[in-house]
Write a structure and sequence with these properties.
CATH superfamily of one domain: Aldolase class I
Largest sheet: 8 strands, parallel, barrel
Distance between the termini: 54 Å
CATH topology of one domain: TIM Barrel
Mean pLDDT: 95
CATH class of one domain: Alpha Beta
Low-confidence stretches: none
Strand content: 25-35%
Shape: globular
Number of strands: 31
Strand order of the largest sheet: 1-2-3-4-5-6-7-11
CATH architecture of one domain: Alpha-Beta Barrel
Number of helices: 13
Length: 607
């Protein structure tokens, strides 16, 4: 059966444990260095602890080493990969092809979204050179995903939730050009979340001081079923800089969605085991978001930008009816507020403002500040205090169903066997001291009771079977010690069973689908250069980050289009009214927007 994986982010080990306990089948986490989120690195010790816990449930841990690498870092990266292999990490996620020229241990390799995986040619090449899984570009539609799936055999992973880069991943050099903070080095300064003014070629202002490159956040909740049918194996939640509460809420939300689909389909199954019972109803709009979009999953959509603010709005509550000196009233039939809630709204100048709720009396809301609030303003709640309190206390135990079998082998030797829902079996034998029971029935009940206390373990008892030759009465500590040893043995056996299978990379000479590559291939070291040479690329340009910047160099390519958002798409215009160039401007410079209508893409060039 095809296995379906819910893949959750982990900023740190606490987020990793939260993800697993709230239903993730796999977790991706940053290594100490060389991850595309430089501020989210983790120690090998913490990653090792997370791996051991994950493998109890056959969950996977993938570690990101997805920056481009400089020559002086190659040895450190190679050593790091060996260290990760030695602590049983399930796979590494990489961007730099120079890694494939290293002396690698037999560890599975996944292609990061930064390798710009948006064509069948690229996916087939990655499959042929030994990648096990590939993260597809977020811009792909269902039809494109289905086409790739039908013509390839590699496992396909796609983002289903979280922040969207406006550029094709791995193809943005805007931050690097401004202040040498390269996105491909994990240091993106997020210039796409800054305000810009848009001019036409005559200098006329079209839009002033708006967040013209800032997109809403992705939410594909309604498309999980269709994505499974299209061939997706791994469903990825963005958020390696998000906190544990975000991970708990969003992971639980998609766990429930996927589980409902698994019940309906008999050709797929979950890739891990263990169930978690949470004490809250997941609500994605209560975690950080810039409002939601399905992006290009069904072709071009309206309003995918977040033009008025790059910040989180939260859930729309309702419209203010009337304001007073120290409180306001809101329209009826809206969700209720509670003390400590955070709210935000756009003032009359379209600036996002926020305050906290101090007191609520029926429909009268007393905020910390009444500044700029007015009748007619739409209120959003960006912090639900009650919901957040529940999230912070949510720490469900992920449980594996087991049956216990306790039998007497001879006069003094006893055996306790555990068989779990996956069929993993472990047995422990021990000579136990007992007394002749005065009441056989009560003695058996006591034995059953003591052995059934699985306590703080991750095992949940379904059935227990006891077969004794004698009428035995055991002291509680005797059975407790046996039970603890049996649980420890079974957990150890599960961890050992779920160690990754060695997967050596076999060097190939599969030709690359182009014989020339420019700076957008992100080749930053001698290994990567040799790799592409070996695969038939003759004309190679080195990465933007180590090359001299050129005039009119493309800094961004994106499927998002400002013309489309302004309802000025050239496909709907006459030849005389078509717009070929616009200028974006802010304190960092002027950028020419060019419109490649044949490819339905927009590019940015520094002017």
């Amino acid at each position: 059966m095809r296995q379906i994986e819910l893949l959750a982010p982990a900023k740190n080990i606490d987020c990793g444990f939260a993800a697993i306990n709230h239903g993730a089948d796999a977790v991706y986490i940053g290594a100490p260095k060389f991850g595309a989120r430089k501020m989210a690195g983790n120690s090998l010790s913490h990653i090792s602890d997370l791996v051991a816990y994950a493998h109890i449930f056959n969950c996977k841990v993938y570690v990101t080493i997805n920056t481009i690498i400089y020559d002086h870092e190659l040895n450190d990266v190679e050593k790091l990969i060996h260290d990760l292999y030695n602590i049983n990490v399930d796979a590494i996620i990489i961007q730099d092809m120079g890694i494939l020229e290293m002396n690698l241990p037999p560890i599975a390799i996944h292609a990061s979204t930064q390798t710009d995986n948006r064509s069948l040619e690229k996916i087939k090449f990655l499959e042929d050179i030994g990648f096990e899984q590939v993260v597809l570009a977020r811009e792909l539609s269902l039809k494109q995903i289905e086409h790739i799936s039908k013509h390839s055999n590699i496992k396909l992973e796609c983002f289903i939730h979280g922040a969207l880069c406006v550029s094709y991943s791995g193809q943005c050099y805007l931050s690097a050009s401004i202040n040498n903070r390269s996105a491909n080095r994990g240091e993106c300064g997020q210039p796409c979340r800054l305000p810009y003014t848009l001019y036409d070629n005559n200098g006329k202002t079209l839009v002033k001081n708006k967040y013209l490159l800032s997109l809403k956040d992705l939410n594909l909740s309604e498309y999980i079923d269709k994505l499974i049918d299209a061939g997706i194996n791994s469903f990825k939640i963005e958020g390696r800089l998000k906190d544990a509460d975000y991970v708990k809420n969003i992971t639980s939300h998609y766990r429930q969605l996927i589980d409902k689909i698994l019940i309906k389909k008999n050709n797929i199954k979950r890739s891990s085991i263990g169930n978690s019972i949470i004490n809250f109803i997941p609500e994605p709009h209560k975690s950080f978001s810039r409002n939601f979009t399905s992006y290009f999953i069904n072709g071009r959509q309206d309003e995918i930008w977040n033009i008025d603010s790059p910040k989180a709005l939260g859930e729309r509550i309702g419209r203010i009816v009337k304001t007073y000196n120290d409180y306001f009233t809101i329209e009826k039939n809206t969700p209720s507020f509670s003390n400590g809630d955070g709210i935000c709204f756009f003032d009359k100048k379209k600036n996002l403002k926020g305050t906290n709720i101090n007191k609520v009396i029926q429909n009268n809301i007393y905020p910390e500040s009444m500044n700029d609030l007015y009748a007619g303003a739409i209120i959003f709640r960006n912090r639900d205090n009650q919901f957040n309190t529940v999230l912070k206390t949510s720490d469900p135990k992920r449980l594996i169903n087991v049956d216990l079998f306790f039998k007497q082998i001879n006069k003094s030797l006893f055996e306790l066997t555990i068989i779990d829902e996956e069929g993993v079996q472990s047995s422990i034998s021990s000579e136990l001291y007992y007394e002749q029971a005065r009441n056989k029935e009560l003695a058996n009940e006591n034995t059953k009771y003591q052995l059934s206390k699985l306590g703080n373990s991750n095992l949940s008892l379904q059935n227990i079977n006891i077969k004794l030759i004698d009428d035995c009465f055991f002291q509680s500590k005797v059975l407790n010690n046996l039970r603890r040893d049996a649980i420890q043995l079974h957990i150890s056996k599960r961890i050992e069973k779920n160690k990754p299978i060695p997967k050596p990379i076999i060097q190939t000479n599969t030709p690359y689908f182009s014989n020339q590559l420019n700076y957008k291939a992100n080749i930053a070291n001698k290994n990567a250069f040799s790799f592409y040479k070996k695969h038939g690329v003759n004309n190679i340009e080195m990465a933007f980050e180590i090359s001299t910047q050129k005039p009119n160099q493309e800094l961004m390519r994106t499927k998002y289009c400002i013309l489309d958002m302004l309802n000025k798409c050239n496909k709907n215009a006459t030849d005389n009214n078509k717009i070929h160039h616009l200028i974006l401007s802010n304190q960092y410079g002027n950028y020419e927007c060019n419109f490649d209508c044949k490819k339905c893409e927009m590019t940015l060039i520094k002017k």
